[in-house]
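re the bet — no i am not wrong, look at it urself. input seq straight from the record:
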Amino acid sequence: MACNTTPIDSYVALNESTPCTGSSYTPLPGLLRRLFVTIMVFMIAVGFFGNAIVCLIVYQKPAMRSAINLLLATLAFSDIMLSLCCMPFTAVTIITVKWNFGAHFCRISAMLYWLFVLEGVSILLIISVDRFLIIVQRQDKLNPHRAKIIIAISWGLSFCISFPSVVGWTFVDVPARAPQCVLGYTEMPSDRAYAMMLIAAVFFIPFSVMLYSYLCILNTVRRNALRIHNHAESLGLSQVSKLGPMGLQKPHQLNVDMSFKTRAFTTILILFIGFSLCWLPHTVFSLLSVFSRQFYCSPSFYITSTYILWLSYLKSVFNPVIYCWRIKKFREACLDFIPKTFKIFPLAPGRTKRRIQPSTIYICSETQSVV
């Protein structure tokens, strides 16, 4: 991992490896640096206040303390800590082109960065597996108590994986190569092994598991939709009249709990897509930094690292926007936090009748089918 300390090529080495002695680098132009910092200040504000509202909603409203909402609140908390503990130092370094916080804090900032990123990824992974169990395996085993235990375990694992960077078990130096501590080039097998483990824990393992889960879920949705279509065609008008109003309502009543638990699938899928878009470039960048000396010592490394780090921070801003867009209860709770004097438009009255959607019909035979 590496971060810059001066706008020239001098550096403070924290171990004996100095792969880029005498190399030059190209910083961002002054106007572009100011633009980046302005955007990052806005991202810090949105990341903090947006995610704080999510946490407050779950904390203040007992009805919102379901297992998945506890997981989403933990994801929001990790994004808050990332916005407060890492992004401001990166913004300062971008504008000054100088690491002003010392070599030891370089290690601490690296540890905090990976800790909060790992925790956020772990929560997305847990939610994806939970959706897989509910929709594909038809097993709803996650309750609030178990969710709290899993959250505590995920924090412990994330800390254990990120902690080696702060105690000097990995290659860390402080050259003028990036606006914060990042994985840097090293030829030591132990350092490369740790870097691969870190990259696998942050991206490869979660991405593989989540991708498999969502492919299975989408396949289940497709099969159930086909069964519903075939069942509707085979059901005659006389059979419908025999069921009566109570018979038609029975499938929805039997599946109301499962229906509630599967509404978040599309939202979680969008979060997964956002995670992939934000972290795939960072993963490729980290691999090249560790294994390619030519890439790590190139003059364009500083500019590349700035763009990549900005994209990785974008995920913490992306999540609360998705919550308010996709989850009605969060959107309504957010409006409750806004003072009445700031509510320009009155709330429109809700519909008295809900639209019937084919996706809410889950039973095609005696066996329950969840989409």
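see?? The CA atoms of residues 6 and 98 lie 5 Å apart. told u. also The radius of gyration is 25 Å. so pay up
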